[in-house]
Structure formats: C-alpha cells, structure tokens
Inverse folding.
C-alpha cells in the first residue's frame, strides 16, 4: 500500500496531477485545480491506493485528515473512490462533519450542491461514526447557509443562490452577504 508520496508536480488537470518522485511519475487523482497546485510545486501527499480488477488508482490528499474522511466516505454503500473524491471536492470537511453530527442532509445539500439522496446517505451512514469528531461548522459557513436560505425564499434556485453566495469574497454578516449575493445575481 502506498500511503504517501513526496515529489514535484509534473502536470495538472482538473481531476488529477502527475507527481514525479525520484524520476517516477505517479498519476494521482485529486482536485488539483481546487488546491491550486502548479507545475514545479513540491508536494507531500497522503495517498489511498484503490485496487480494482483492471486498475490500481492512487488518490491524493494534502492532509491526513482529508484522507481519513475520504476512507470514511468509502464505507457508505454505493460510494466508490471517484464519488468520495467528488464529494470532498464539493463540500468542506467542516460542512460535512456538522451536517452529519446534526443529521441535517438538507444543510449538506444546500451548502455543497451534493445531491439530496447522496446527502441523506452520508448523514445516515456516518452519523454514528463521527461521534468522537468535534469539528464545528465555521461561522462563515453558517452565514452562507442562512444567506442561501434567504435567496431561495426570494425565488432564486438553490444552484444560483449557492453560486452567488460563494462568489462573494468579503462580508461582515448575513445581511451584508445577502446584499452582495443579490448584486452578484443581478450581473
């Protein structure tokens, strides 16, 4: 099992990067675009080796905590490595953890864009496994959730509301966030 790699980024794409480790290029599935890695960066990645009948796929994470959560997602029926990586690309771990602890699939769906059924499965199957985890929801995430609720109540679609709220860079409170998101939607 390959648990970590340290090397230089040779190439990147939206779904993976190639990490050169002592002259060997490893294709590692991850959200390299979201992480902001560039060619030439030196990285240390925590990895998960997915063994299938026809392939050996490496999945990489900048922290051991993300790797642990990825492996936790793999315990949910019908969620494989690619789905688990997609979930982590859509939702921050703090949002996932808070939604699971509160048994609130609606909040998870609303904040991350994860499908309703998948959000319900995540909450249902991982609730008992996260009792020891104490990662509270970031106050910014709580404000975002409230702002999305307001925009939806004003008639905007959940997707548009979520996109507008995430596009706003700075805000001091929920009201300010809603005003800036409305400006964003008007453009």
């Amino acid at each position: 099992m390959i648990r970590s790699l340290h090397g230089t980024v040779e190439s990147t794409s939206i779904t993976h990067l190639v990490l050169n480790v002592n002259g060997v290029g490893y294709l590692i599935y991850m959200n390299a675009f979201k992480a902001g890695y560039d060619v030439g960066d030196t990285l240390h990645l925590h990895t998960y080796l997915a063994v299938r009948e026809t392939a050996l796929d490496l999945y990489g994470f900048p922290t051991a905590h993300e790797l642990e959560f990825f492996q936790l997602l793999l315990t949910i029926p019908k969620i494989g490595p690619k789905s688990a990586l997609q979930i982590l690309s859509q939702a921050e771990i703090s949002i996932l953890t808070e939604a699971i602890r509160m048994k609130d699939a609606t909040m998870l769906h609303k904040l991350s864009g994860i499908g309703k059924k998948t959000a319900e499965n995540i909450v249902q199957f991982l609730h008992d496994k996260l009792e020891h985890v104490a990662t509270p929801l970031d106050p910014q995430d709580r404000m975002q959730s409230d702002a999305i609720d307001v925009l939806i109540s004003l008639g905007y679609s959940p997707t548009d509301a979520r996109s507008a709220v995430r596009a706003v860079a700075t805000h001091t409170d929920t009201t300010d966030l809603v005003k800036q998101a409305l400006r964003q939607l008007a453009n």
